[in-house]
Here is the input.
Amino acid sequence: MSPLGRREFLHTTVAALAGGMAFRQGDWKTWRVNGARVNQHLTELSRFGANPQGGVSRVAFTQADIEARAFAADLMRQAGLDARIDTVGNIIGTRAGTQPGTLPILFGSHIDSVPEGGNYDGDVGSMSAIEVAQTLAERSYRNRHPLHVAIWCDEESGLTGSRGYIGDLRAEELRRPGRDGVPLADKIRRIGGDPERVAEARHAAGSVAAYIELHIEQGGILDEKGIEIGIVEGIVGIHHYDVTIKGFANHAGTTPMDRRRNAMLAAAELVLVVDRVVRSVPGRQVGTVGRLLVKPGAPNVIPGQVDLTVELRDLSTEKIESLWTRIHAEGQEIARRYGTTLAYERQHANPPALSDPGVRALIVDAVAGLGLSSQPMPSGAGHDAQDLAQICPMGMIFVPSVKGISHSPVELTRAQDVTNGANVLLQTVLRLDQT
Amino acid sequence: MSPLGRREFLHTTVAALAGGMAFRQGDWKTWRVNGARVNQHLTELSRFGANPQGGVSRVAFTQADIEARAFAADLMRQAGLDARIDTVGNIIGTRAGTQPGTLPILFGSHIDSVPEGGNYDGDVGSMSAIEVAQTLAERSYRNRHPLHVAIWCDEESGLTGSRGYIGDLRAEELRRPGRDGVPLADKIRRIGGDPERVAEARHAAGSVAAYIELHIEQGGILDEKGIEIGIVEGIVGIHHYDVTIKGFANHAGTTPMDRRRNAMLAAAELVLVVDRVVRSVPGRQVGTVGRLLVKPGAPNVIPGQVDLTVELRDLSTEKIESLWTRIHAEGQEIARRYGTTLAYERQHANPPALSDPGVRALIVDAVAGLGLSSQPMPSGAGHDAQDLAQICPMGMIFVPSVKGISHSPVELTRAQDVTNGANVLLQTVLRLDQT
Here is the structure.
């Protein structure tokens, strides 16, 4: 028996003295999810939108998504939750609390995927959240707070469901046709939402006790170090800049080398500058040129224009801005050198969303109680949790992704890691309810 | 009267002693084209495929091309030429010669354009070739050699007509569907060719006395220096390499900077190496990365693959190969440094086509006779002339392109330069016929 175990024993004993009900509930720190079941549910979920080459294409609002949502709502009902679709299209499963006037504890994730995505991404957190409810039902746990399990709709294309939940979806956005020509409103209707009444899905700041999300890391840090749980310090801010470099398109055969205004050369230098500047200061910030379009793009034409994206992420907005200032200054100098021009537009600047220190402490305690290894880390990826952080204390739990591969058919989180994550979620929800 | 003028006077006088016909023909060095007419024909030709924003889209085999071809054939007939369409689809206008057994003198260009091209490109040489025939008809010139005026079909997408003329079109190429899904054979049929009998268009080596082509420079050297005529030393060889750099696509937020295998970084360095290596040796060689595709190409994904083209051009194949050897070696080193791989395929390697020194000397003499300024230069662009060089002595005459702009609605060759070019063509054809 470890010292911690001894403390738990004492706690249980003390609780036992308080009375029968408390005695039965008092051993809750020893409660564990059914690991086989949660992993089985993950396997069953992977049928919806399954691709022949592995993984799923379960893009939000498609038939695969709609069928998977019905499956998840069924599991919620089997777990004793009252499952309903809110006006944005989120599935919210409710378990009433015993103590009037307490705020709900909210936890969950999403089950939509990117095209040709994997079977773990938001699925692990979603199936685990339902598993937590199922475990509590089987234990006949009498939660003080209402418990709300959320399956957010359309996480992948812009956190649609969680933004609706915090009141951050504008009518204009609902009406505007998407890339496929279909307005978001029509899609929300397709999954049982009611876009005319989307305001009713909104939750004001202070109306939720806390939000907890379990998710796969989507990076390789935990897997590489052999650490079982990541305790998320926050979700990084993301600044996305659209940069346009203009030179002059001309014949690649007849234009001498010293008469060119080659936008591709300036763009190539800028790509290298982004990497160099981001690496030049200590920290875990990242910077990426992920999209780069060359115009006109023919082998025998000197590129006249290059459009590229620069994406910078960090937990500190100040650091992002200072990196961009340096990149932009160097970029202007490069553009001049090549007889080109550089212009940019900041497409978006998501602020970082820090997790709540109190919630983080409860996760640390839950991890310790389970005897798991852990480390604090930023989330480099965006999550619904960043929206919820605007209205309530937020915490996130990461489990390892093998080789850090994500958004890919070969994405993998091992069964034991899924079970570990679900147990940390269970123990964190219980601690939240008890405090 | 200049010293050259005096020599011409003497020549004319001597010729005059030889008899009446020779006397009338003997003043041929003073003959000039009708500059107003050839420029008027250029303007009329620009109706076919005219774009609202200027220039033309007269892509080969389109309705605009077909109508422009009918217009050109009409002009040929007005110039006394016997205009026929050969089995490849070239329009060949013939003027019989007086001396049996002499080989034909061939001259011409093309009237098809790139999409959104200009009004000068191949049009200047085509209208001037017909103008030369018209001038000779008006002078009742009794040419010794047969004169063949060619409007080559489909220059822009691969020198189709001139390749057919030298027997370099394979049956497989005729059958294969193009990018638009239509086989070349069907297109050739559309313009009056007979793809089943394409072999009949073939001309063996030694069957043509010489080929002369007048064309706009498509570069800015003549315009910048204020020189009136370019005497083409040859058409550069073109090597085109398709390069693929493979790294590993991963999440741009969750993958630390030191865990990336970013294909875009390696590609950026390679782009700069191409430029540096090509500039590192003296000469007029050029090298260009004109197409570069980033996969998957999303702002939030580290590029896993970049496909790019490297195009190298020079009059010397040896120089091209030595440049590529250096670029490839540096590329491999770069690829290793970024944890990526680099593979390439040489898509094509067109050999350079040198102009004939004898023909070049006649052009130099014609230019001098016209009192025009000139300089020798390579052609960085491909032309039908490079095919003809395989079967006969070839010469090319360049006129200035304002600001070197080409394949663009704002392409411009001034009327006086068009007239100058047509006169040099006339005088060169006459010299060829007289020698």
Q: What stands out?
A: Chain A touches chain B through 58 residues (CB under 8 Å). The radius of gyration of chain A is 24 Å. The CA atoms of residues 89 and 193 of chain A lie 4 Å apart. Chain A has 14 helices and 16 strands.
